[in-house]
Amino acid sequence: MTTDSSLRSGPGTTGRRSSSSRDGRDGGAGGDGGGGRVHGQLPGREHLPARQPVAAASAVPVLDVVVPVYNEEKDLHPCVVRLHGHLARTFPYPFRITVADNASTDSTPAVAVALAAELPGVRYVRLEEKGRGRALRTVWSASDAPVLAYMDVDLSTDLNALLPLVAPLISGHSDLAIGSRLARSSRVVRGTKREFISRAYNLILRSSLAAGFSDAQCGFKAIRREVAERLLPMVEDSGWFFDTELLVLAERAGLRIHEVPVDWIDDPDSTVHIVRTATEDLKGVWRVGRALAVGALPLDRLARPFGDDPRDRALTGVERGLARQLIGFCAVGVLSTLFYLALYSLFRLGVGPQVANGGALLVSAVANTAANRRLTFGVRGRSGAVRHQAQGLVVFAIGLALTSGSLAALGAASGSPSHGTELAVLITANLAATVLRFLLLRAWVFPARACSEPDFEPDSDSDPDSEDVR
User: Fold this and answer.
1) Mean pLDDT of 258-285
2) C or N: which end of the chain has fewer Cβ atoms within 10 Å?
3) What is the pLDDT of residues 101-145, one digit of tens each?
C-alpha cells in the first residue's frame, strides 16, 4: 500500500512544461497496460520538448528524482531541501522529487510529509516493505515523467553532476545514465575497505557477466521512462542488486548507457551493511549469470527493440555487415586452416607434398565454402549451393596455384626441405590466399547485394526453395 501527498507546483516547476504525449502516446510508451508494454516496439529516442509557458498547476515534470529512504529522519530534511534548491536554480525543466519510504519505523514519514507540504514539487510515497529496488520499481512504474532518476539520501555525489547525468536522456542520445566513481576523472574520498569492495565487485561483473559499465552500485542513476517500462518487468531483484540487474539487461539489449564521472565523498554514518549487501549482490550475479547461460532471460524481447539504430536502416550505397563478416570469416578460416594442416600431415604420410597439398586443400575448400556460405554471409537454403561451390572451387584453384607455387619455389631453392619448413611456407602462403579468398567470396561468390537485405521475405508465390538471405 502506498500513500501519495498532493503534488504542488511552484519554484522549480512554474512556467515549465513537457508534453505527456509524444509520438501519439499518452502516458506509457506502449499505449497499453500490463505485459503488452514488454513486447511492444519503442519509437526512436528524441529530444524532449523545451519548456513552454503554461499554467503552473498543469506543469508535467520532465524529471522525477526518487530518494529511497529507510529510517533517515536525520538526513532526509537537509537532503531534500538542498536537492530542491539545486534543481530550482539549475534545472531548466519542470521537476519532481519523490521521497520513497521503505517501511521506516522512526519519524521519517513525518519529516517526509512536512517536506511535501513545505516544498512545491515534492511528494511522499510510503511502502510497507523494505527494499531499494522495490521502492524504485514502484515509483518509476507509476511516474508520468519522461526521465526518471534516483540518488542516495546522503548526497554523497556532488549535485553538479545531476544535469550532465540526465542531459543525454533528455536530448535522446542515451537510454540510461549512471554516475561512475571509477572513471579516470572522478574524484572520490572513501576508505580503503569500501574502495576495495567496489572495485572487486565491478571486476566480478566484468569477468562473469561481461559487463561493460564501470560502476554498478553508485547511487546516482537515471533512465528514460519508456525504457524503464520495458525493463522493469524483467528485473527480479527488489534490493541492492536491482541496479546491477537493470544495467546488465539494458546492456544485453544493446541500449546506450551514458557514464558520468562524479565527485563522491563517503558518508561515514551510512547504515548500509557492506558484507550483507555484498553477499546478496554475489547471489544476484550467480542468478543472472546462470539465467544468461541457459537462455532463461527473455532477451529476444529486448534485442534492439528501440527502432532508431542506424544499422537497421536501409541505406543505398552503404555496404553493411563488413565487421561481422570479417569475424565470421576469420573464425571459419582458423578452423579451416587447422583442418587443412591436419589433412596435409595425414596425406603426406603416403604421398608427395604436391598431391598431399592438393587433396587437403580440395577437401578443406569444400568445407570452407559451405561454412562461409551459412555462417559468414548468412545464405540459407539449398538453392544456389552448387553454383556457390563451383565458384568456391575457382577460388580454391587460385589458392592452390599460390600454395603449390610456394612449395615448388621452396623445392627449387632448398632441394629437400624439412616437414616443418614446408608447413611454415604453406602457412605464409595461406595467409595471403586467405585475404584474396575473402575478397572474392564477398564480391563475387556472395555479393553484397545478396547480403544487404536482412529483412527479405520471399513472396508466397515465389519458389519455396529460393535463397533466404538473412
Assistant:
1) 76
2) N
3) 998 999 999 999 999 999 999 999 999 988 889 999 999 999 999
Taking the C-alpha atoms of residue 198 and residue 217, their distance in angstroms, rounded to an integer, is 8
Across 42-55, average pLDDT: 58
Over its C-alpha atoms, the chain yields an Rg (Å, rounded) of: 30
* pLDDT at residue 68 is higher than 80: yes
Residue 460, pLDDT > 80, answer no
Tell if the pTM clears 0.70, that is, is over it.
Answer: no
Q: At what angle do helices 385-414 and 419-440 cross, to 10 degrees?
A: 140
Position 450 scores a pLDDT of 42
40 close to 229: Cβ distance less than 8 angstroms: no
Q: What is the 3-state secondary structure (H, E, C) of the chain?
A: CCCECCCCCCCCCCCCCCCCCCCCCCCCCCCCCCCHHHHCCCCCCCCCCCCCCCCHHHCCCCEEEEEEECCCCCCHHHHHHHHHHHHHHHCCCCEEEEEEEECCCCCHHHHHHHHHHHCCCEEEEEECCCCHHHHHHHHHHHCCCCEEEEECCCCCECHHHHHHHHHHHHHCCCCEEEEECCCCCCEEECCHHHHHHHHHHHHHHHHHCCCCCCCCCCCEEEEEHHHHHHHHHHCCCCCCCHHHHHHHHHHHCCCCEEEEECEEECCCCCCCCHHHHHHHHHHHHHHHHHHHHHCCCCHHHHCCCCCCCHHHCCCCCCCCCHHHHHHHHHHHHHHHHHHHHHHHHHHHCCCCHHHHHHHHHHHHHHHHHHHHHHHHCCEECCCCHHHHHHHHHHHHHHHHHHHHHHHHHHHHHHCCCCHHHHHHHHHHHHHHHHHHHHHHHHHHHCCHHHHCCCCCCCCCCCCCCCCEEC
Q: List all residues 6 or more positions away from 377 whose beta carbon is below 8 Å from its beta carbon.
A: 325, 328, 441, 442, 446, 450, 451
Average pLDDT over residues 275-287: 77
> Residue type at 235?
V
| Cα 136 from chain centre | 21
**Measured CA distances, 88 to 68, 85, 95, 353 (Å):** 21, 5, 8, 81
> Is residue 87 pLDDT above 90, yes or no?
yes
- Identify the burial level of 316 via C-beta atoms within 10 angstroms of its C-beta, where 0-12 means exposed, 13-18 middle and 19 or more buried: exposed
Mean pLDDT of 83-102: 94
Cell 529507510 sits at which residue? 70
Output the pLDDT for position 330.
85
Instruction: Kindly tell me if the per-residue pLDDT of 52 is higher than 50.
Output: no
